[in-house]
Amino acid sequence: MFTYVVRRILATIPVMVVVALFVFSLLFIAPGDPAAVIAGDQATPADVERIRQNLGLDRPFLVQFSDWAWRLLHFDLGRSIFTNLPVTTMIAQRIEPTMSLMLITLLLSIVVAVPIGVLAAWKVGTWFDRAIMGFAVFGFSVPVFVVGYLLAYFFALQLEWLPVQGYTPIARGLWPWLENLILPSIALGCVYIALIARITRATMLEVLQQDYIRTARAKGLAQSPILFLHALKNASVPIVTVIGIGIALLIGGAVVTESVFAIPGLGRLTVDAILRRDYPVIQGVVLLFSFVYVLVNLMIDLLYTVLDPRIRY
Amino acid sequence: MDRRTFLKVTAGAGSLAATGGLATPAISQGAAAKTLRFVPQANLANFDPIWGTQYVVRNAAVLVWDTLYGFDEKLQPQRQMVESEETSSDGLTWTFKLRSGLKFHDGTPVLAKDCTASLTRWSARDPLGLMLKAIQQELTAVDDRTFKWVLKKPYPKMLLALAKNSTPMAFIMPERIAKTDPFKQIEEYVGSGPMKFAKGEWVPGAKAVFEKFADYQPRQEKASWLAGGKNMLVDRIEWVIMPDPATASAALQNGEVDWWENPISDLVPVLKRNRNVAVDIADPLGNIGTFRMNHLHPPFSDVRARRAVLMALDQEEYMRALVGDDNNLWKPLPGYFTPGTPLYNEEGGEILKGKRDIAGAKKLLAESGYTNQPVTCVVAQDQPITKGQGDVTAELLKRIGMNVDFVATDWGTTGQRRAQKSPPGQGGWAMFHSWHSGSDCINPAVYIAIRASGDGAWFGWPNVPEVEKEVTNWFDAKTLDEEKAAARRLNKAALDNVVYAPTGFFLTYQAWRKNISGIEKGPIPFPWGVSKSA
Questions:
Q1: Could you give the ipTM of this predicted complex?
Q2: In terms of CA atoms, which chain A residue is nearest residue B25?
Q3: What is the pTM of this model?
Q4: Which of A27, A74, B191, B365 is the most exposed place for a label (fewest CB within 10 A)?
């Protein structure tokens, strides 16, 4: 097991190298010029060129890439072209809101989606099942920003229970932190809940047909332990897989959610950086996201062994 | 449901809540009343007003850095940091004396050497500064409070250059900071303005904080735009960056922010219905919508093709696309200068007036030799102003029989592509859309878009010697009448040759909570004199 974990962690290195090379190349060939944005409308072409030189953007691709890679090896992601702040500082400023949002969304999604998926499978064909599946279609179909605006309409502006926007660090208290995250998490979680609920239902339906479930029922075991102890445990591998894959959905959704609720997170940092062509920030954030994604999938793989002892690495 | 309807429905919630008698949430008292929460037009992504010339940087910079002179609401330069100035009889030597008691935020006094270093850095980047630099003999400190600027030829527009609010403004920084290469970003944000920049609280893209500078020495005169006493009535200003207008609208209605610089016109009716929110015009100098045609390559290298477009251009269509049905927000602009300012005139503007002549435009276009080649029309989709204009232009070009190659892109890409001088089929362009702040179009000194000096001109590179001649005449003018005469000839020459296409004059709104008072209309959201009750 230990060898496997080490091997998987080492395997992330070539993945990150490919991601780094890909992102760097993509940005290099993409149109747009940060020097022109900085110089503004009044600038002459000579001004723009001088700013480009000062930023080192006039150097050949290989020189720029090797310079960036060398700094990366020293855990230096460079400085933002615009703010002149270290990219690591900018990420550090933004990571807490995004991680908080993703964590709350993840918890909310699992706590809601798994039970309703199980119950839908149990009550298959009933109104409850249809209602859950209807909600799943809704969750998939309605964009995050629409759900976000509607939630803000009812719960912030009409009922005045929660704030419209912003983020409060957890250091200032649990409730101030949580109250800013409730609406964004529900908005972002809708699609995720729909996804997990559907997978849970489908997998449970399959498991509930198995002989050992019939045996359990024949032994007179109550419905609840059958569903949640026996069936769910055996259905959990695909569910956990989907949760892992869904992290990518969360990352994508966080970009929109953070904009709608004005949360100063990594998603907004990414969008701002892309619009301005702030290359070091884009590269830093994409690398971070890909690293998180790889790490989450590793954790999911390891979780398999806990959920299904037959799986060994 | 379209975008506008959706925004109105969702953002309208706050209005309903307010008119329905629901109490707004209690904001903390005391300290909150001394903190002004402001939603700016854009993110403060950098904070060097000489290196980065975006309006949002300037708007933040006026809090932190002071200027020698400042425009008042009549667009007249008034002394600000300067106590007095003298000009030699030959007009070649300007001697400036600073007010006493001026201090930087680090406690050091403002000295003449700080001014000379700051003006040197500014003059390397600013168009007027570059003109001054070209005729400069020396710029030196005489003593701690006096410096002189010796020129090789008279420069009557000196005070205008030092007072102007177009970017980059002539801000005064400590010498050690001002010695930074003008093409590199400064790393310290120390000024002598009424507010200090709280660098430690700056989260680019989310928040910027300014704190009252206790040692600031305001002038005794009444504040008027960038002139007069900049008395701060709040202790702290928090800039809250909100990229989504519906969120900003909801936050303002909910009392989570106090002042929103630029509500989009779609949301203004909703804000006006809210009894806790006031809405008014932001800047009486407004904006001028534009698209520029590339004078270097066919079809717009031929003036007849450019004039054909103007003959068919309906400014009302453009303005409706930008401001909707609100007639208070726009007016036709058969000229180039900002309406309501001294140089505004309509000389040569007949081509933009009256019923649009589509048949005449088609005929003139044919005479220009247009052979149905694609017209590469670059339109940034992430800017509502350029997107709205671009959609109208595409229809306009089709109406007169042009083959439109509509390039939908973003503003960052537009910025790069418009600098390409290659033909449209080889990475270049035929037209792109933009807009100019009205304060940048009040006279030729600050109006880079009207210049027509060929390679040195703004994108599109018009080469019209008559325009340049009248710009020079304006600079040399001794009286306002002479200036106006030059501006009339300039306007006609620019329209005859279609330096660029003005699509109309439009205004924007600002909105604030009614417990905020003292907000003025102006090209910059001036925070001095603004107070907040609990």
A1: 0.81
A2: A160
A3: 0.85
A4: A74
